[in-house]
Amino acid sequence: MSRTVSSERIERNTKQKDAIHAALAACDEFISAQELHRKLEDGGVKVGLATVYRQLNALADTGEADTVRLDGQQLFRLCGDDGHHHHLVCKNCGKTVEIESPSESWLKGIADKYDFTIENHTLEVFGLCADCRNR
Fold this sequence. Notes:
Layout: H1 2-25, E1 31-32, H2 33-42, H3 49-61, E2 65-70, E3 73-78, E4 86-90, E5 96-99, H4 104-113, E6 124-127, H5 130-133
Parallel strand pairs: 4-6
Antiparallel strand pairs: 1-3, 2-3, 4-5
Helix pairs in contact: 1-2, 1-3, 2-3
């Protein structure tokens, strides 16, 4: 009997994970866990906020989702490609554009200038998109 309960839990968690992944895939821009949770509930999906956080962090840990911090809040987005990339993010509306990595020579030059080694790097550029600047 406990096996049946365990199987039901695994199935329910899989359904929740799939629902969270699908909801995140439907978002073109970065989204907070709270916003994604609200979208799921508005769509009739019953899932706890802690589960949303756990699943989003698991996606980020496996490299399936990108994360950025904006105004003290962590935001998530499914990766658009498998290669290393960075983002331009509008601070007002959240519009996001994937951009290529800076050149390795530029990174090495910065590291050498300040006597650092680079083990890994992230680069996110925040500003205002054309639509928000023209409002």
